[in-house]
């Protein structure tokens, strides 16, 4: 999970969502009260679940470690195959706009000639 969260694409997307969420909360009082209530509910459910799940996690720890190592290797391979994952969202959007603009200009030139 940490490895996925540290990917530039995922990290920047989370930052964008977090900023949008905070902005929505700050600009609408009714949304703020609903969000605050939802946050409290999620926090209490998480705390209650954590205490119940801990004994199971302790038992499954060797299996979780093996699965984590396997997933980490898979993510490394995915990162090599898709370098896009190492770029932040803003850069991907910018690169895509440039590519589309270039292709449109090429098509326009081809049609003109």
TrEMBL record:
InterPro entries: Perilipin. The keyword Nucleotide-binding does not apply. It is found in: Lipid droplet. Coiled coil: none annotated. The keyword Metal-binding does not apply. GO terms for cellular component: cytosol; lipid droplet. One of its GO terms (biological process) is positive regulation of triglyceride storage. Its main location: other. Keywords: Lipid droplet. Belongs to the perilipin family. This is PLIN3 protein. It comes from Pygoscelis papua (Gentoo penguin).
